[in-house]
Amino acid sequence: MRQKSGYRHWRGSLWLAVLALVLPLLATPDAVQAQYRERRTLLDLLFGGPRYIEPIEPVPTRRKITTPRAPKKTPKTAASPAAPPPPPPTVKLENARKVLVVGDFIAGGLAEGLDEAFANSAGVTVIEKSNGSSGLVREDYYNWQTELPTILDEVKPDLVVIEIGANDRQQMVTAAGRQDFRTDDWHKEYERRIIALAKTVTDRKLPLLWVGMPPFRPQNMTSDALMLNGIYQKTVEAHGGEFIDIWEGFVDADGRFILTGSDINGQQVRLRGSDGINLTAAGKRKMAFYVEKPARRHLGEMASPEFMTLDGGNLPELRSLPPSQMQNIVSTQPINMTDPDLDGGTKLLGDEPPPAAAFPSPRENLVQRGQLPPPPRGRVDDYALPQANTVLQ
Known about the structure:
Layout: H1 2-26, H2 29-32, E1 35-39, H3 42-47, E2 52-56, E3 97-103, H4 105-117, E4 124-130, H5 144-155, E5 159-163, E6 172-174, E7 177-179, H6 184-202, E8 208-211, H7 219-237, E9 242-244, E10 260-262, E11 268-270, H8 281-299, H9 323-327, H10 362-369
Parallel strand pairs: 3-4, 3-5, 5-8, 8-9
Antiparallel strand pairs: 1-2, 6-7, 10-11
GO molecular function: hydrolase activity, acting on ester bonds
Pfam families: DUF459
InterPro entries: DUF459, SGNH_hydro_sf
């Protein structure tokens, strides 16, 4: 009995092995994908009997049906109107007043700002003759004492603007030798050169505007610029020039250097370059703002944007008067429009005293004389004695 039981067990195991090899070949695609779950009884667990494998039908998965989305419709916006073209530049008059700007690289930026300031003034043109690396110290590189007279003869300006000094913080070579920066001999020679340059302009009876330097980011450079501005102001004003101080426009309320500040319209903009030395377009225009007002004062009415001259090309159309009126024309002497006596009088119309009243009014008696009007008869404040024939009620 034990042999038969072992034989049956061996035969069952053999059949299971054969079925395990054959079933994958005969299975359908759906059966291959099926999952199997093993069911075992208590006897199988005790004696290791044959196992029954029950296939489990695969749970069908729901396919997510996606519908194509319609493309998003962007709202149609009305086409923005095209920006109007910039107005054409103002044509300068042939006899326009000339503003000459000379100096170093700061003067070059000042000339750009002044050119923008007078862009709409047909009677003013700005001419730049600056040298970026020049100054009053290195005469071996560029000598303004000899170059400026030649420039004045060539340009024939009506106003001269000088801005210089940013490159002068260095040793100076004089006839007595080399002079170190900020020494007494250096100061004396530097003042002499400022006087010579200023007199080159003022001796020709030309107005001179000497513009001071702005502050810079390096602290030592700022302190030197402040010292040089003091020399310019004292020396130039003593020899017929006008000093223009722009320092306050490029510092904060505590007097410290700023990169960003208010422009000429009060808006916060970048005024200085990233190096803390050069100026941006807004900074150049702000520097020119300080020069614009005194420049217009020297240039007169031609600096006004509304100024124009009448010539054969822009005269208004004149219509001839009828012959009868042409014969009755009476010519009179021209009258100055600013003459206060042009009408023959010195008083305005209606400047006559009012007629004196025959009897003063109660208000005049009260205000001027302090007299009250008489009370009505019989009132409590009527202190007059009653008449003999008056009966009081």
